[in-house]
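ARCHIVE CARD
SHELF: 3
SLOT: left
DATA:
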Amino acid sequence: MKKNILMILVAMTLMTACEKNNEKTVTMESIHKEEGIPVKVKIIEKEEFVKSLNFSARLSGNRQSAASAMIGGRIEKINVEVGDLVEKDSILMEFPKDAPAAQFKQAKSAFELAKKTYERMKNLYEIGGISKQELDQTKTQYDVSAANWDAAQQMLKVRAPISGYVSNISVRETDGVHAETVLAIISQTEKMKARVWVTEDEICEIQKGMTAKALWKDAILQGKVVEVAMSMDRTHNAFPVDLIFSNPKNLCKSGVIADIQISTYENPEAFVLARKTVLEDDKGKFVYKVNSLQAKKTYVQTGEQNGNIEIINGLQIGDKVIVEGLNLISEKEKVKIIK
């Protein structure tokens, strides 16, 4: 008897719960029917749409040259620091005059002797003591000695190959170096250059003259594509693309790794929607607009994509396109716009 009573109570409890659930469902449906399904909308207006390809690349001065040692030996003096602006042929570093490789003392002695000899022979020629041929031979020896003396002096001084900023110094005073060792880098950084490597698919989208950006920390450099390869580089299995960027006030440093964006498509007055907003059926792609507080199915023609979608036909300025609540609505469903 007690068991039967317990079963009756459980059954009554289940029936009450089902009735409450049905009451809730009916209440929510009635609210939606009366007030409309809550949705969020985007009011269509013109905005910029840019499609880009993204890479990483090292930036360097548009013109960059290395200053190298002409001889081996000890660095006696460094006249510049990283960041200094130097003129072409200004002296960056110096070797000591006793550097064996320069043969400085020998060249100086030979020059001084040749100079005295030439001056003496010139005086003899003027009084008829020697022939013109003998004077010319002495002059030739003097010229050769002068050139050797000048070369010896030049070897002791490391000069800037171009005008620009000292972007790197690889030695310190008293360091010993070998001939042809790169001692410093001079860069012209009012413009920066970069090379990116692109795939077969990407190369078809890139053309010379396209706009680009280089982003490094807080700096944004504006630039463009200046060279697009016509054939693949077999070493990289990719196509090289060269870019130039303006670098006002030297915001960006030579040698840094920057994010490169090449704009392959730009529309400054586009209609743009998020991808999830654009749906598709057998007839094509569509969106839901709000028209007289009803959802209206509107077919659209799409263009490029960059995470969002460019709408090139089917919408007008001021249209209210539903962007949230899409899973609850259908054609001519009553809706309520919420903020």
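SLOT: right
DATA:
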Amino acid sequence: MFALDRDLMVLEPDLLRDVGWSGQTLITGTAGVSGTTLTITASLSLTDAGVDAGHVVSVAGVPLEVIEVLTSTTATVSKMRPSSEDDPIAVETLSGGELIVPTFLPQIGIVHRQVLRAVGIEPDDPDDDALTEDDITNPNGLRLLEALGALHLVFASAAALAPGGSPLAERAEMYRQRFADERQRAAARIDLDGDGLPDATRRLNTIVLTRL
């Protein structure tokens, strides 16, 4: 996928506070952080829970992005960075804090498939010669679009469970509009011949009609 949980958190810093579902929680327990090293209780396993780079962990209410899982019980983490390319930001020491690792990858996955289809790539096409997402040479250029769409789905789902007039509905609408605006701007560069270089540019604000 082009976006990960950390990309949603950059746009919506209070996401873990405002929205969360037990069915999308990878692991809970206790953990400590020193500098950029997270250590969880030995009875838990980050690897078994599927925690990986790009996930966000909450330790004692502090959201941290996972940069690398080192062992089943340790990982390199950082305070939220503006860009995933930035150096890790050390954390003040936290010990024995509540650990929660939620994920919004199901919502990101839905938008990811929509984005692929919008640029003419069918994710379920079994043809070996068909284009795939690996043929997109500028995946980072679609990261914001995917994150905005996922946040719309997250807040729309949360608003459906809240009383009428919930602020969550307003945020869902805001992200729907931002997703629509970004879709007008975004473009995918496609490698058509497998040489690793882009041969075509496909914009997401157009509909391609095919004569049958």
